[in-house]
Amino acid sequence: MNKGQKMTQTRVFRFDPAVDKEPRYETYPAPFEGRTVLDVLKYIYENHDSTLSFRLGCAGAGQARCGACAVLVNGTPALSCKKLAEEGMTIEPHPGFEAIKDLALDFDREKERVTETTIRVKITVNPEKCDGCRDCVLICPVKVYEVQKSGGRGVAVPVDIGSCCGLTCNQCAMFCKNSAIKIEAIT
Question: What's 149's domain CATH number?
């Protein structure tokens, strides 16, 4: 079946509000080396449990403006289509939005921050370059930015760094026409 592929036990958040009273975690064996978190979720769906719900959207295709696959991997926000899978990982819904079912999020329903995430990125916005165009606000799938007045003009400000999917996303920096945003990993 999976000859030569290194397998790991992957813990996945499960909750179907139509059936479950409380969330739970299910553990599934899945190959992980050289795969993304999204590949692992697809493997679980195709080989173990076709009731698992998650979003995929662009599936990592180039610089597509997506973000529907935002999740937590071992407590850190990431886009599942770009984050490399890890041995023994836990996958949970991104904490900034209500889960419809399992890992599928309702991006129209933000929720109170209850889950603490470890900040693993440093976001720098150069106020001299930022013209307050709001592109970063519009493109960020997890609503990290807002535009605030500074010196009589608008400037993008990161207001929820803990939700940032960091270098697995980086769409705010890629699409900033003035190159005003820089995201760096904190190690």
Answer: 3.30.70.20
Domain hosting residue 128, numbered range: 121-185
Residue 23, C-beta contacts closer than 8 angstroms, at least 6 positions apart: 13, 14, 15
Best CA proximity match to 86, nearest among 166, 8, 185, 4: 8
How many C-alpha atoms does 98 have within 13 Å on its Cβ side? 8
From the list 15, 185, 4, 161, the residue with the least C-alpha distance to 91 is 15
3-state secondary structure 76-132: EEEECCCCECCCCCEEEECCCEEEEECCEEEEEEECCCCCCCCCCEEEEECCCCCCC
pLDDT in tens, 10-57: 999 999 989 999 999 999 999 999 999 999 999 999 999 999 999 887
Burial 15-44 (b: 16+ CB within 10 A, else e): beeeeeeeeeeeebebbbeebbbbbbbbbb
Q: How many distinct helices (H) and strands (E) make up the chain? A: 3, 11
Q: What is the pTM of this model?
A: 0.73
Q: Which of 88, 91, 78 is nearest to 42 (CA)?
A: 91
Position 1 in a domain = no
Separation CA 175–CA 179 (nearest Å): 8
CB 186 within 8 A of CB 119: yes
- Give the C-alpha separation, 79 to 67, whole Å: 6
